[in-house]
Design goal:
The protein contains one helix and 22 strands. With 238 residues, it is mainly beta. The protein folds into two domains: 128 residues, Jelly Rolls (Sandwich), CATH 2.60.120; 93 residues, Jelly Rolls (Sandwich), CATH 2.60.120. It has a seven-stranded mixed beta sheet. A hairpin with a 4-residue loop joins strand 7 and strand 8. The chain is globular and about 45 Å long. The two termini are 17 Å apart. It comes from Candidatus Brocadia sinica JPN1. Belongs to the pirin family. This is Pirin family protein.
């Protein structure tokens, strides 16, 4: 079964933050957004597409017992903990953070003159009390062109490891090209068209900024009608 979520169906938020503003597209219940039908998807708890104005900062805040994956979709993302340590991501790069037993951190637009867009995903951890850690991966467009590239995974050796039964893949799929993806038992897929498109997903049309929630399917066939940037999240259904 495939459920297509059109852009207008995804909750949008905006507000003031330190040094600027944010605009968010929040796919699952988060902060003031509460939707009983979209509380989580398997091990995926949060999927936020946020844009920060030039120089804006999401100030230091505390989390515990989550696995965080951050994908930079435009501009430059900078992560910092309470000691100012972190890393910078450029478009297509990815970061994984084990929050574990607790961490203060902030998300920062590293550029003073351009907006910054990032996709942040939270996953339920497979164990509690882990030591906090941060790792990141540099990815160029050629590496993900016309293929699904594992970015973060509990299975793929070349991906950033994660303490959750989950995987995140990216792709730049050129117009007219196709991808096939096998889905194992007890797993689901969340596919997001974060730029370009539309794409056909098993003959369902998914527009730019739209998503497909996939359960009880064994195979995905994805075709790009125009160039498209995609994120595919594969999770255990709990």
């Amino acid at each position: 079964m495939i459920t297509v979520r059109r852009p207008e169906d995804i909750y949008q938020a905006e507000g003031d933050i330190q040094n600027g503003t944010f605009h968010g597209r929040w796919h699952f219940s988060f902060d003031e957004y509460h939707d009983p039908e979209y509380m989580q998807f398997g091990t995926l708890r949060v999927f936020n597409d946020d844009t920060l104005s030039p120089g804006a900062v999401w100030p230091l805040h505390y989390h515990r017992e989550i696995e965080v994956v951050t994908y930079c979709a435009g501009g430059e993302f900078r992560h910092a903990d309470e000691d100012g340590e972190g890393g910078v991501l450029k478009k297509g790069w990815v970061q994984h953070t084990t929050i574990g037993k607790g961490m203060y951190h902030s998300e920062i637009n590293n550029l003073p003159d351009k907006p910054m867009r990032f996709i942040q995903m939270w996953f339920f951890p497979s164990e509690s009390g882990l030591e906090p850690s941060v790792g990141q991966k540099r990815v160029e467009r050629a590496e993900r062109t016309n293929r699904l590239l594992p970015l973060v995974s509990n299975e793929h050796m070349d991906a950033l490891p994660i303490h959750s039964n989950a995987q995140v893949h990216s792709s730049f799929l050129q117009a007219g090209r196709t991808l096939d993806y096998q889905i194992r038992d007890w797993r689901g897929v969340y596919l997001y068209v974060l730029e370009g498109g539309p794409v056909q997903v098993n003959n369902h049309l998914v527009p730019a900024l739209g998503a497909a929630k996939v359960v009880e399917e064994t195979r995905l066939h994805v075709k790009a009608e125009t160039d498209a940037e995609l994120l595919l999240v594969d999770v255990h259904l709990i």
